[in-house]
Amino acid sequence: MASRRVGLFSHAVLVLPFVVVLAAGSPGGEPARATTATKAAVSPVKEPPSLAKGIGAYKAGNLDEAIAAFEQAVQEEPRHAFSHQYLARAYYEKKRYADAVKIAKETAALDPKSARNFRTLGLALMATGDLKAAVEAFSKSADVEPKNYWTQNDLGYALFQLGRNDEAVKALERAVQADGSKAMTWNTLGVARLRSGNRAGAVEAFKKALQLDPGYAKAKAGLAAAESQPAPKPR
User: Fold this and answer.
1) What are phi and psi of 198, to 5 degrees?
2) Residue 185 belongs to what H/E stretch?
3) φ and ψ at 26, to 5 degrees?
4) How far apart are CA 157 and CA 151, in angstroms?
5) Rounded CA gap, 163 and 124, in Å?
6) What is the pLDDT of residues 89-107, one digit of tens each?
7) How far apart (Å, rounded) are the C-alpha atoms in residues 143 and 12?
8) What is the enclosing helix (H) or strand (E) of 59?
9) Residue 97 lies in a domain
10) Which of 21, 152, 158, 159 would be 164's cystine partner, CB 3.0–4.6 Å?
């Protein structure tokens, strides 16, 4: 997982490998990977021959080969949602953000209940600078998986970037409820709370970030900024 740090806050950038194997779960609070039954329910069409080749290349870290195979898979079976989903993800990781947006939108038409695809769409839109559309995509992901850490984290970050601090606080609070082990999310929550006027809540969040990562310089700076502000006077 990579992280982007801007000012006092950090943003976890989702790097999610798509691996079609049975698993109890996956790192970062991600849901279990798709089973054969799930795939059949989402894509009741024949699996394209090139999909397996693309997945193998993706797992090996060869994005160019994976993209070529996924593009071929989409041509072989244009209605196969998972081929589109893998292609959108590969485009995103290759930093072909406009292509990722296009394919993720096509995936959404084929599978409007894929929270993972909406997260990919949101991340690609955010990378292009379209934060409002990214919020919409992350919100659709949250509608499907409201307790998913990554969805709420990325939604909170996008809202924060738009200056919608109160909404960002709510999303980030849902994120730490889903997974409270990420110092960067507590730090971002601290900044959002501080900007919303919740000094005490900001101090609490920054201290939690430092409990998880005592050397976190940005959380230290955030805590110092919060503690330097005068406490609100009682009414």
Assistant:
1) -95, 80
2) helix 183-195
3) -145, 165
4) 10
5) 20
6) 999 999 999 999 999 999 9
7) 20
8) helix 50-59
9) yes
10) 159
Which residue has 């990420």 as its token pair? 182
The Cα–Cα gap between 79 and 72 comes to 13
Question: Structurally, how many domains does the chain consist of?
Answer: 1
Number of C-alpha atoms within 13 angstroms, CB side, residue 163?
Answer: 0
For position 166, which CATH number holds? 1.25.40.10
> Is residue 154 one of the residues assigned to a domain?
yes
Q: What whole-number distance in Å separates Cα of residue 37 and Cα of residue 34?
A: 8
What would the pLDDT profile of 177-208 be if each residue is shown by its tens digit? 999 999 999 999 999 999 999 999 999 999 99
How far is 202 from 189, CA to CA, in rounded Å? 7
**Between the CA atoms of 210, 212, 217 and 222, what dihedral angle is there, to the nearest 10 degrees?**
-40
Kindly state the tokens that stand for 37. Answer: 């039954």
Give the SS3 label for residue 11.
strand
Answer for the pair 46, 77: CB distance below 8 angstroms, yes or no.
Answer: yes
